[in-house]
Amino acid sequence: MKKIKLLILNFISILIIDVSASKAEKFILGLQNYDQQISSYQESVVELALQHIPGSHSFEIKRLEVSQDRIFRFLEDENSEIDFSIGGYSRDKEQRFLQLDIPISRGILGYRIFAIRDDSKDMFHSIETLEDLKGQVVVGSGIGWPDTEIFRANGFRVEAASYRNLWLMLAKGRYDAFNRGIGEAYLEINSYADLLPNLTVDDSLMVHYPYGQFFYFKKSAQRKHDLLMEGIQAAYDSGAYMKLFNSHPQIRQVFEIVKPTGRKNFEMINPEISDRIKAIPAKYWHKF
User: What is the pLDDT of residues 231-274, one digit of tens each?
Assistant: First the structure.
């Protein structure tokens, strides 16, 4: 009789654990309110990860009319409705939030190209070295963006402003080149083609530094962080992650339009990079 009771108790314990493991969670992602296409790949990664974990989880996006820096301040508020956001790596965010240690776009965000004015094409084509680039170009970058400080640490003159204002300032000649990820530039320039017809994307060079874009969760969202990590790892193991990466239009554009292997590539340092980032396995990073 005791053995039967013990078996029943064990069975009930297993059921409780299974119910807990499959508890449906609602994942709320906070993003800036820009063109949805710009974040479509990242959103697809979340959806793919949730398909690879048990439970009927849901996913919602809150688009906010604020800067990226403000979104992360919201994320520090435990009463905020958003659970996580997306951002380029920084030691500051690594300490303030729960960082999911797999780069979303496999580190290609560390390859940077430039939105420029049409009348700057010849100048960019004449640049042969990193020193030429630093000497001739004032770079535009966002307030609170990690890459803003990376460019400054590498000796660039940097004009910092909000994302929307940077496009307007570039068109008016307030600075020379808007630094963008290779998966962002052409998509974004198309969004501004009618409003700012004098802008284009330089096709001659790029810079690179070790850098990735990560999911950052608020401290109280440990379970959601762990579930998404589990889902992404499972998607890698099944081959589904690489299938998404290689087939998504935003990533395919990098290879087909940007043509990174045909550009002059200048290596830069990233003084922000931590030992924790360096320890991420090579299989999660893309190399051109």
Answer: 999 999 999 999 999 999 889 888 899 999 999 999 999 998 99
CATH homologous superfamily of 111-208: Periplasmic binding protein-like II (3.40.190.10)
Q: Which residues pair with 139 in a beta bridge?
A: 158, 177
pLDDT at 13 exceeding the cut of 70: no
Per the CB < 8 A criterion, the answer to whether 171 and 198 are in contact is: yes
With bands split at pLDDT 50, 70 and 90, how would you rate the model's confidence at 144?
A: confident
Give yes or no for a contact between 88 and 209, defined as CB atoms under 8 angstroms apart: no
Q: Report which DSSP code applies to 242.
A: H
CB atoms within 10 A of CB 96: 16
The residue among 110, 121, 174, 114 whose CA lies nearest residue 147 is: 110
CA-based torsion, 226, 210, 280, 241: positive or negative: positive
pLDDT at 72 over 70: yes
Residue type at position 190: N
Can you tell me which residue has the tokens 């958003």?
82
pLDDT at 14 over 50: no
- Domain residue spans in the chain? 25-108+211-284, 111-208
Q: Give CATH superfamily name and number for 25-108+211-284.
A: Periplasmic binding protein-like II (3.40.190.10)
Identical fold for domains 25-108+211-284 and 111-208, yes or no, is yes
Would you call 153 exposed, middle or buried from its count of C-beta atoms within 10 A (0-12, 13-18, 19+)? middle
CA distance 99 to 89: 9
Q: Percentage of the chain surpassing pLDDT 90?
A: 73
- Farthest CA pair distance, the chain: 88
